Amino acid sequence: MASRGFLDSRTLGETHHRLALNVFMVIVLAHWAEHIVQAVQIWGLGWQRPQARGVLGVPFPWLISSEWLHYGYALVMLAGLWLLRGGFTGTSRRFWMLAFGIQLWHHVEHLLLLIQAQTGRPLFGQAVPVSLLQLVVPRVELHLFYNTVVFVPMVIAVYLHLRPSAAEAAKMRCSCRPSMAPLPAPATL
Ligand SMILES: [Zn+2]
């Protein structure tokens, strides 16, 4: 029996969807928590912005100063959203793909930041690389916002995915699918 590769869409989207989803959500949550900690450092503790580097960025400042790393993470997140989409059905899939669409834009912003850092030519005559929406909102606030508006539809999608109606469950092919014992009729609210 030929075994399928890890990145085969049926591996991540079907047979190991639950496991892959759990691992991915932990990574995304940890990253988002770093943005929250950074916000608390600035607005709760009154730290100067250059010193407010979250938890890992305090002992490892290069983690936060490397545009390569920010871009790499944005790309990994985009890839994860794409690779895991196969398991989602119905409404949960729409929320998941909404998160993917927003992350696609967030990733473009990081690509622009990376290009500016590599060429040494910040856009719009700025002193440092800037995101497009940073012309309106400062970087810390903007990227906290970006990570939040990607995370929220992801959580909704996962919540709906793990609590499917009978009709949704019947369409699911992934490892999150409830046991196929006769399912109760969908609850009426
Ligand atoms: Zn699943």
Automatic annotation (TrEMBL):
Transmembrane segments: 21-48, 68-88, 144-162
Keywords: Membrane, Transmembrane, Transmembrane helix
Protein name: Uncharacterized protein
Originating species: Actinoplanes aureus
